[in-house]
Structure formats: C-alpha cells, structure tokens
Amino acid sequence: MGDETTYKKEGGGASPHRIVMTPAARRALDAAGRLFYERGIHAVGVDLIAVEAGVTKKTLYDRFGSKEQIVVEYLADRDERWRAFLAPYVEAASTPRARVLAVFDALRGWAEGPEGYLVKGCSMVNAHAEISDPAHPAYPVIAGQKVWMLALFTGFAEGVAPSGADAARLGRTLMLLHEGALVAHGLHVFPDAIDQARGDAEALLDAVAGQASAHR
Q1: 59: buried, middle or exposed (CB in 10 Å: 19+, 13-18, 0-12)?
Q2: pLDDT tens-digit profile of 96-111?
Q3: Dihedral (CA of 165, 167, 170, 174) sign
Q4: What is the rounded distance in angstroms from the CA atom of residue 62 to the CA atom of residue 58?
Q5: What pTM, to 2 d.p., does this model score?
Q6: Measuring CA to CA, how many Å separate 31 from each of 34, 59, 66, 197?
Q7: I need a labelling partner for 203 at 20 to 30 A (CA). Which of 27, 51, 63, 91 fits?
Q8: What is the rounded distance in angstroms from the CA atom of residue 145 to the CA atom of residue 151?
Q9: What is the pLDDT of residues 6-56, one digit of tens each?
Q10: CA 88: distance to chain centroid?
Q11: What DSSP element (H or E) covers 121?
Q12: pLDDT value for 7
C-alpha cells in the first residue's frame, strides 16, 4: 500500500445501500445535512427536513424510504466530500512523509473553509454519539470512515517506518493525532490544535525515519 494514493480506494467495511439522487432528493439531503450537523440527528424530524427543503414529506419517503436512509446519505456524502477535498493535497505530495503532513494540511483547510465543516467538530464522531448500534444502517458509514483513515495513515507509514509492525503502530499514532485534533478543534479546547497535531506528526515522522536509517 505504501506510496499508493489510498485515499481513492474504497474500504472500511461493507458499502451501505445508496439511492440515486434526483434534484428534489439533493435539496432534501442538503437541508438534512445542515440540520443534522447543527442540531443533532435525533433532534431533527422528517417534517422539518421537508419544510427546509421545500418538498413534501411524501417526496422524502418516496426518494429515501426512511429517515435512517437520509442519515446514511448525509454521512456518506460528508465522507465523499472529505475524500474529494483531501485528494489534491495528497496528490501534490511527493513522499510518504509529505503525504502524511498533507492530511493535516487538508484538515486545516477543511476547518477553515466557508462551509463550516468543523464548526461543531467531526460529523462522524457526533453521529456515533447518537448512533452506537452496529445494526443501524448508518453505523458502517461512521465506523468505515475511521477504518479508512487508519488504513490511509498506515499506508503512508509503510514508506517511512523500518518494518510492517512499526508502520502499523505509526499509522495508529498518526490517526490518534488526527482524531485528537478534530475533537480539540471542535470543542475549542485550545487554539491551533490542528497545527500542533501537524507539528507533533512531523516530529514523530522524523524520529521514525531516523530509526529506519539506523537499521540500514
């Protein structure tokens, strides 16, 4: 996996059922996504989504079938947007080390963008606080996104660490830095959480690279 652009690959468990988006469904999903992120999934009903989207409740059920499917589409859409946002950052990086740091640069850009994607923290973490049942159709999207991020970091780590075991550990540590930065940024625990996580990741990569050189 090493140097491959793993952000383009599918992964993270079974793919959820998805629907074909019509213009009305897209309007509804945009409204639902905004409401779910701002107010919470359980706090937002289908009636409110219909009003905000300018569609009928019947149209919502005709297009999505259930509120649970709207939640699936909301979270899958967020994941797809993140992957698309991340891709050019990683593509511009020429080494595994640079690709790792590019993920943190992308996270900063995601946080600073006008869309407000991180104003209330990570949408997947927020959703997991409300959806912890693995039987829920949206659960694979939530867990799968984090599994994908771990695979991404681990793949890049393989180009830095001296062994597969070291790469696995480095990948987990990099993900912990990334996820910690997400939470700290969303809660405003301290300023510049993402920049600090990037700096810590850079120091860690340099230390591991030094160890790899010593083993050669």
Answers
A1: middle
A2: 999 999 999 999 999 9
A3: negative
A4: 6
A5: 0.88
A6: 5, 14, 15, 32
A7: 91
A8: 10
A9: 444 444 445 778 888 899 999 999 999 999 999 999 999 999 999 999 999
A10: 16
A11: none
A12: 46
**Biggest distance spanned by C-alpha atoms of the chain:** 66
Six-digit token pair at 84? 């698309």
Q: Give the position of tokens 């120091």.
A: 203
154-156-160-162 Cα dihedral, nearest 10 degrees: 40
Say what percent of the chain tops pLDDT 70: 91
- Centre a 10 Å sphere on the Cβ of residue 57 and count the other Cβ atoms it contains: 13
CA distance 165 to 200: 21
Is 135 exposed, middle or buried (CB count within 10 Å of its CB: 0-12, 13-18, 19+)?
A: exposed
Q: How is 154-192 classified by DSSP, letter by letter?
A: HHHHTTTSSSHHHHHHHHHHHHHHHHHHHHHHHHTSSTT
Cα distances (angstroms) measured from residue 117 to each of 85, 89, 108, 208 = 11, 17, 11, 32
Helix ranges restricted to H, 40-163: 46-53, 57-64, 67-91, 96-112, 123-130, 139-157
Q: Which residue has the tokens 């706090």?
A: 43
Backbone angles phi, psi at 115, to 5 degrees: -70, -20
Query: Using alpha carbons only, how large is the chain's radius of gyration in Å?
Result: 19
